[in-house]
Amino acid sequence: MAGGWARDGAVSEQIEDSIQDELSRMKARRQPVGESLTHCAECEEPIPEARRAALPGVKLCIDCQQERDSAYTQRGGINRRGSKDSQLK
User: Any idea what DSSP says for residue 46?
Assistant: First the structure.
């Protein structure tokens, strides 16, 4: 599939690199570990027993966790394809 000056397998390597980058980013988002708190670390409201049993190591109540999750931060990605449209931005 690679053409021009690209060596054989270059496209597959780009795809694999993109997958590895995303897997590394997802692994960096650590899940809670250890013992769950009985009260939220931010608002001090009690954390329901069912939530503590379902998510070991939970530190936030549902409302605080939803607020934290909804705070989307856009990250700049690397366009390995180098398409003309991406260069116009």
Answer: B
CB 57 within 8 A of CB 33: yes
pTM: 0.48
Of the two residues 69 and 39, the one the predictor is more confident about is 39
Q: Tell me the CA distances in angstroms from 35 to 40, 47, 53, 64, 88, one per residue in order.
A: 13, 13, 10, 18, 50
pLDDT digits (tens, 9 = 90+) for 17-42: 999 998 888 777 767 778 899 999 99
Closest-CA residue to 40 (of 74, 79, 68)? 68
Looking at the DSSP bridge assignments, the partners of residue 39 are 46
